[in-house]
Design brief:
Elements (H helix, E strand, L loop, with lengths): L14 H6 L4 E10 L6 H7 L3 E2 L7 E6 L4 E6 L3 E7 L2 H18 L6 E13 L6 H7 L4 E2 L8 E4 L6 E4 L4 E7 L2 H10 L2
Length: 190
């Protein structure tokens, strides 16, 4: 009787499935920037299209731009959190566009301390994964409680990234600070 390994295909892989295992697509980059000035959030909300501000619900203005398709949380302290970019470069461009929009309203903004906080990627192994076996073999890195969450949480040490692995072979990678960390995982697991 043949035994199956946790991350080995349970059916013979096609040559295209083998090539696609290393394909990781970045789906979100979260970054922040400091504009180094205090902001009047009501003025921003009333002056900028595609923005909303409900101080009873949340203490920031939510602004959106179309290119690159991103969202910013604008705080009164002058800090911005940008989400939705598909690359580090796109995230920086979006942060600069948000800063420019705020500058045009009349605020004396600077662009300081741009920092990437999280890069999220996804990939598909194209074969089922035995999560129970993977959890048992790598218990020091894994957390798997199917009653609470359908995926296995695999915490890597280096690079320090968390993988959410699902039984259908889909994987979400989160916690990377640089694209190279995501690529490193792709190269290591071809």
């Amino acid at each position: 009787m043949a035994t199956h390994h946790a991350l080995c295909p349970q059916m013979p892989p096609s040559s295209t499935a083998e090539k696609d295992v290393s394909f990781i697509r970045i789906v979100n980059v979260v970054a922040s920037v400091n504009l180094e000035c205090s902001l009047d959030l009501m003025k921003i909300c009333l002056s900028v299209r595609n923005s909303e501000y409900n101080p009873k619900r949340f203490s920031a203005v939510v602004m959106k731009i179309i290119e690159p398709r991103t969202t910013a949380l604008v705080f009164a302290s002058g800090k911005l959190v940008i989400t939705g970019a598909k690359s580090e470069k796109e995230s920086n461009l979006a942060a600069r566009k948000f800063a420019r929009i705020i500058q045009k309203i009349g605020f004396n903004v600077a662009f300081r301390d741009f920092k990437i906080h999280n890069i999220v990627g996804v990939c598909d192994f194209k074969f089922p994964v035995n999560l129970d076996e993977l959890s048992m073999k790598h218990s020091q890195f894994c957390s798997f409680e199917p009653e609470m969450f359908p995926g296995l949480v695999f915490r890597m040490i280096e690079p320090r990234i968390v993988l959410l692995i699902f039984v259908n072979g889909k994987v979400v990678l989160t916690g990377a600070k640089e694209k190279s960390q995501i690529q490193e995982i792709g190269r290591a697991h071809v």
